[in-house]
Amino acid sequence: MNTVWVRLNAVVFFGLTVLLGLALMTATSTYLHEGHPTVKTLRLNKIKSFRSQSKVDRAIINFDLEADLAPAFNWNIKQIFVFVVAEFATKTNPLNQIILWDKIIEKPEDARLNLKKMHVKYGLIDQREELKGTDVTLHLYWDHMPLTGRLYTHSVAEDTFTLPMEYIRPGQQV
Amino acid sequence: MEELVNKVAELKMLWKHKRHLAFRCLNVAMIGLSALMLWKSLMVVTRSESPVVVVLSGSMEPAFQRGDILFLSNHDAPLRVGEVVVYKVANKDIPIVHRIMKVHEKPDGSVEVLTKGDANRYDDTGIYAPGQKWLKREDILGRARGALRYVGMVTIYLNDYPKLKYVLLGIMGIFVLTSKDS
């Protein structure tokens, strides 16, 4: 330890090793955390419009969501990314999953969601024109994004509704 | 400064004793090749051609910031909505980290997916190749499984100032070649 370089070398590499150790400890400290968020309701409120646009079927809906995601938080969570997914099967595609609405939650205080008649952010769009009379299931997903560590997503399936057999123009009664 | 003159003098002496120099070079090669072996093993275990990527843009903020490192895995499980994936647009070198917004799976198991950055207003259709509306399984380098913060800033600096790469490697090379065995 008699030259600047040797000392610098020792400090830098020991520092990096310590940082790596701390990162590993952070990641493992919350590895087994389960947390049990509750989803009280997720259901269709109203189909606002359902028609064909540019050769593809497109449905816009309102939904109700009541959920408490605060238990999903731990000290190692940077944000929870919540999203509502519409899942359905068509003749061409046996499985379709579309995110209709999403939200970033950064604090457990903001994690109690109580949304009524919430308008979707993104339309329920098929690749063809095969949505008439199709059953759609709404799922709630929440993605845990850590400070340091693994990413994981949990989800729960809630309501199923059927799209009408005829197109609906916006403003038309269902 | 004196250290530098010493190092240069040592290097000159090394050049006179070729066998010693060869031994030193072998040491450097061992370190380099061990690192390469580790990287290739990681590629095999994760089935990804790029098991570790650096986040280059702020399109996934606040979850991932520029300079964060993501660990990927690319196992055969089918692509599903909500997964954070890394993909490359055809002919471009930059890996993009975004979330899958739409999944359309065909009867044969193949998928067409649409991605979007969490912090972006619009989906990635504008980023794909002209005329391309969907990504396929082959475009995806892997799913993000874990994150490590800030460490990737080193890679970003090295890419922004390429001369830094050579300077750094040069210094490291000189130190390993001339370190005393005591």
UniProtKB/TrEMBL annotation, chain A:
<dbReference type="GO" id="GO:0006465">
    <property type="term" value="P:signal peptide processing"/>
</dbReference>
<keyword id="KW-0472">Membrane</keyword>
<keyword id="KW-1133">Transmembrane helix</keyword>
<dbReference type="Pfam" id="PF04573">
    <property type="entry name" value="SPC22"/>
</dbReference>
<dbReference type="GO" id="GO:0005787">
    <property type="term" value="C:signal peptidase complex"/>
</dbReference>
<comment type="similarity">
    <text>Belongs to the SPCS3 family.</text>
</comment>
<keyword id="KW-0812">Transmembrane</keyword>
<keyword id="KW-0256">Endoplasmic reticulum</keyword>
<dbReference type="InterPro" id="IPR007653">
    <property type="entry name" value="SPC3"/>
</dbReference>
<keyword id="KW-0735">Signal-anchor</keyword>
<protein>
    <recommendedName>
        <fullName>Signal peptidase complex subunit 3</fullName>
    </recommendedName>
</protein>
<dbReference type="GO" id="GO:0045047">
    <property type="term" value="P:protein targeting to ER"/>
</dbReference>
Automatic annotation (TrEMBL), chain B:
<dbReference type="GO" id="GO:0009003">
    <property type="term" value="F:signal peptidase activity"/>
</dbReference>
<protein>
    <recommendedName>
        <fullName>Signal peptidase complex catalytic subunit SEC11</fullName>
        <ecNumber>3.4.21.89</ecNumber>
    </recommendedName>
</protein>
<keyword id="KW-0256">Endoplasmic reticulum</keyword>
<feature type="domain" description="Peptidase S24/S26A/S26B/S26C">
    <location>
        <begin position="39"/>
        <end position="102"/>
    </location>
</feature>
<comment type="similarity">
    <text>Belongs to the peptidase S26B family.</text>
</comment>
<dbReference type="InterPro" id="IPR036286">
    <property type="entry name" value="LexA/Signal_pep-like_sf"/>
</dbReference>
<keyword id="KW-0735">Signal-anchor</keyword>
<keyword id="KW-1133">Transmembrane helix</keyword>
<dbReference type="GO" id="GO:0004252">
    <property type="term" value="F:serine-type endopeptidase activity"/>
</dbReference>
<dbReference type="GO" id="GO:0005787">
    <property type="term" value="C:signal peptidase complex"/>
</dbReference>
<keyword id="KW-0472">Membrane</keyword>
<keyword id="KW-0812">Transmembrane</keyword>
<dbReference type="InterPro" id="IPR015927">
    <property type="entry name" value="Peptidase_S24_S26A/B/C"/>
</dbReference>
<keyword id="KW-0645">Protease</keyword>
<dbReference type="InterPro" id="IPR019756">
    <property type="entry name" value="Pept_S26A_signal_pept_1_Ser-AS"/>
</dbReference>
<comment type="function">
    <text>Catalytic component of the signal peptidase complex (SPC) which catalyzes the cleavage of N-terminal signal sequences from nascent proteins as they are translocated into the lumen of the endoplasmic reticulum. Specifically cleaves N-terminal signal peptides that contain a hydrophobic alpha-helix (h-region) shorter than 18-20 amino acids.</text>
</comment>
<dbReference type="InterPro" id="IPR001733">
    <property type="entry name" value="Peptidase_S26B"/>
</dbReference>
<dbReference type="GO" id="GO:0006465">
    <property type="term" value="P:signal peptide processing"/>
</dbReference>
<dbReference type="Pfam" id="PF00717">
    <property type="entry name" value="Peptidase_S24"/>
</dbReference>
<feature type="transmembrane region" description="Helical">
    <location>
        <begin position="21"/>
        <end position="39"/>
    </location>
</feature>
<keyword id="KW-0378">Hydrolase</keyword>
<dbReference type="InterPro" id="IPR019533">
    <property type="entry name" value="Peptidase_S26"/>
</dbReference>
